[in-house]
Prior knowledge:
Elements: H1 7-12, E1 17-25, E2 31-33, H2 36-53, E3 62-64, E4 75-78, E5 83-86, E6 92-100, E7 110-115, E8 121-123, H3 126-137, E9 142-144, E10 152-155, E11 160-163, E12 169-176, E13 182-184, H4 199-203, E14 211-212, E15 219-220
Antiparallel strand pairs: 1-2, 1-6, 1-13, 3-4, 4-5, 5-6, 7-8, 7-12, 9-10, 10-11, 11-12, 14-15
Amino acid sequence: MAMAPSPSLAQVYTSPVAVAVWEWQDGLGIWHPYSATVCSYIEQQFVQQKGQRFGLGSLAHSIPLGQADPSLAPYIIDLPSWTQFRQDTGTMRAVRRHLFPQHSAPGRGVVWEWLSDDGSWTAYEASVCDYLEQQVARGNQLVDLAPLGYNYTVNYATYTQTNKTSSFCRSVRRQAGPPYPVTTIIAPPGHTGVACSCHQCLNGGEERLPYPQPGTGMGLGQLLIPQMFCLQ
């Protein structure tokens, strides 16, 4: 059985809080956030295992998603490789952890979705949801998603997404639900600041699989942690 972090260790690794969103990448390179409930479970397991990695015991290395949502029973997240693995088919997908301020869209439980061809609603990646909320707050009705690597505009007046090349439109909607989990950033001894982005902090000494930034084709080798820096 995994050991829980001791109070003294929690004090040693005291750091500011953030909102954690876990996402998986589909075959087209698009990132999809897990639900707030599933993210809460993943984050709880992740933080516990990160604490163990810094001296509290052995790691389980994998997180069974069926524990949080029965419909995800075939899936597990393998932490060393940052992948989602489907046990019945062997399909593997990249996963990532994205931290946001508590006042962000994920922190308030706001999710923006677009209507797919089969009539189902698909959530935008968390960074897009947060960007759209920021633009709403500024009173902008037409928002270009090019800064985030997407060839679309979103019109708040008509609740539509338009492909800038083909002019094809889709419906979009804004949903309010439970907030994404608040987490405390854990760092090993000697590492200070809002968050440390070095490989030791992010991966516990293990190599990360790079993943592409949406719409750019660029590889990233670290977690996405907005406005946070390593002060080692």
